[in-house]
Design brief:
The chain is α+β, with helices and mostly antiparallel strands. Helix 2 runs antiparallel to helix 3. The protein is globular. The N and C termini lie far apart (about 35 Å).
Length: about 90
């Protein structure tokens, strides 16, 4: 069985999908700023982009999709989310 039985992505695949579909240079700056503020225990206004919504919690983020109704919200530890953003920033542009 090489295909998933539902459209709910595993954490790593879901995070990669979010990065690929949502994160532009402008979004990256905003997301990083919000994630760093959450890491410092500051209250953070959620991010709402073209296709995704990101809520910042004490220890992680909750990523949801605006349009795909059966895409289950994805919980990612805050440190993993920040590391993923930093790695994404290092990728060469198109």
């Amino acid at each position: 069985m090489s295909q998933a039985s539902s459209t709910t992505p595993p954490t790593d695949a879901g995070l990669q999908q979010f990065l690929s579909e949502e994160v532009t240079a402008a979004a990256l700056g905003s997301l990083m700023e919000k994630a760093q503020a959450a890491r410092s225990n500051r209250q953070v206004v959620p991010y709402s982009g073209n296709a995704y919504h990101v809520a910042f919690e004490d220890e992680g983020v909750l990523i949801g999709h605006h349009y795909v109704k059966d895409w289950q919200p994805l919980r990612v530890p805050l440190d993993k989310f920040i590391a993923a953003l930093e790695a994404w920033k290092e990728q060469p542009g198109p």
